[in-house]
Amino acid sequence: METYIYTVKKGRTDSVVTSVYRVKRNEPEYIGEIKYQTGSYKGHSSEVLRFLFCKKLTTDIAYNASNNSWRGFGYYDRYIHPKLFGLQIIEL
User: Fold this and answer.
1) What's CA 47's distance to the chain center, in Å?
2) For residues 92 and 84, what is the distance between their CA atoms, to the nearest angstrom?
3) What is the pLDDT of residue 9?
4) Beta partners for residue 35, in sequence order
5) HSE-CB for 40 with a 13 A CA cutoff
6) What is residue 60's three-state secondary structure?
7) 70 phi and psi angles, rounded to 5 deg
8) Beta bridge partner(s), residue 29
9) pTM (two decimals)
10) CA distances from 7 to 70, 80, 91 (A)
């Protein structure tokens, strides 16, 4: 199972800076930083999932798993993603 952790730093207005780390052998490895606005976002975990997909660290099947009649792509589900895809995203 691949585990990713992230920390959230709030900006002055609606801006958010999120640092993403991959956990390997119980040590965090820095991957990158995400900057986005909270006006229209899917949630911090879903933004991290989108970041991992853009960096080619996860498959398109895991990214498209949330697509159904009432919700689009890229939403992280903490129950489905760890069991089906071995992908766990945790906020510190």
Assistant:
1) 5
2) 23
3) 92
4) 17
5) 0
6) helix
7) -120, 0
8) 22
9) 0.86
10) 29, 22, 6
Question: What b/e readout covers 64-88, taking b as 16+ CB neighbours within 10 angstroms?
Answer: ebbeeeeeeebbbeeeebeeebebb
Q: Which two tokens stand for residue 40?
A: 């229209």
At which residue do the structure tokens 């766990």 appear? 88
Tokens 């919700």 correspond to 71
Q: Which amino acid is at 43?
A: G
Q: How far apart are CA 69 and CA 16, in angstroms?
A: 29
Beta-bridge partners for 56: none
Q: Which residues pair with 22 in a beta bridge?
A: 4, 29
Question: At which residue do the structure tokens 């990713």 appear?
Answer: 4
> pLDDT band for position 61 (50/70/90)?
confident
Which pLDDT score is estimated for 20?
97
How do residues 4-42 score in pLDDT, each as one tens digit? 999 999 877 888 999 999 999 999 999 999 998 887 777
